[in-house]
Amino acid sequence: MKALIIDDERLARAEVRRLLNDFGWVKVVGEAENAEQALSLIQTHQPDLLFLDVQMPGKSGFDLIEEIRGEMPRIIFTTAYDEFALRAFQVNALDYLMKPITPDRFAAALVRVREEPDAPPIQSPLRSSDQVFVRDGERCWFIPVSKIRLLESEGNYTRVRFENQSPLIYRSLSTLEQRLPADDFFRINRQQVVNLHYIERIETWFSHGLKIWLKGGEECEVSRRAARAFRQKLSL
């Protein structure tokens, strides 16, 4: 499990590292002393777990959580202030450790992490301006959501089409659809979600459906069931 330690105090970060020596299944992939550094490291390493201080210069730990896009790591707060405990659990923190952290209390928090290793990470909604990490085998891309023009279901996988690329990723179309910005993307049939900004032409099609052409050259059919909502969406 990959972990990131975020605290403006160097000694506090060192103490968390020391306590983690007894938990070989947790690998520290980086340290940050403020929210800006943390965001960069989160995008690079995509950690599973954050040890997060509340009060730091500039943005707080809660500010950082609001800015994380994509999969939200599990969070253990480490702080000297008990007044933020309620808010911490309102943002689904796994635990709230008061400094100085005792080994027993730290171990209890790690037990909680270990007890739910397969729990799905908290998902935050995406914006068109957000960057997403796409991986297909050994090939990887880091692209803005706005560049995705079409997503197509292939069983438990989804084909993501952007520019001249079409990687296949292990995520269902329904899972991805829930995260996409609703103002920009629309489910036109059971198999496809399109980016409305890439529609080049629309024509009436069979059975009261529609046919659309995308700027990437794809031809897609809007099902009869989806056509009415699609027309309303585009004010047709």
What is the string of SSEs from the N terminus onward?
A: EHEHEHEEHEHEEEEEEHEEEEEH
Round the mean pLDDT to the nearest integer and report it.
90
Shape, principal axes of CA atoms: elongated
CATH topology of the largest domain: Rossmann fold
Contiguous runs where pLDDT drops below 50 for at least 5 residues: none
Query: Biggest sheet, strands in spatial order?
Result: 2-1-3-5-6
User: What's the helix count?
Assistant: 7
As a whole number of angstroms, the C-alpha radius of gyration is: 22 Å
Gross CATH architecture of the largest domain: 3-Layer(aba) Sandwich
Per CATH, the class of the largest domain reads Alpha Beta
Give the name of the CATH superfamily of the largest domain.
Answer: Response regulator
Biggest β-sheet description: 5 strands, parallel
| Topology, number of strands | 17
Helical residues, percent = 25-40%
Structural class: alpha/beta
Number of self-contained structural domains: 2
* Strand composition percent: 25-35%
Report the span from N to C terminus: 50 Å
What's the helix and strand layout?
Layout: E1 2-6, H1 10-19, E2 27-32, H2 35-45, E3 49-52, H3 61-67, E4 71-72, E5 74-79, H4 85-90, E6 95-98, H5 103-115, E7 122-123, E8 131-136, E9 139-144, E10 148-154, E11 157-162, E12 168-169, H6 173-179, E13 185-187, E14 192-195, E15 199-204, E16 210-214, E17 219-222, H7 224-234
Helix pairs in contact: 2-3
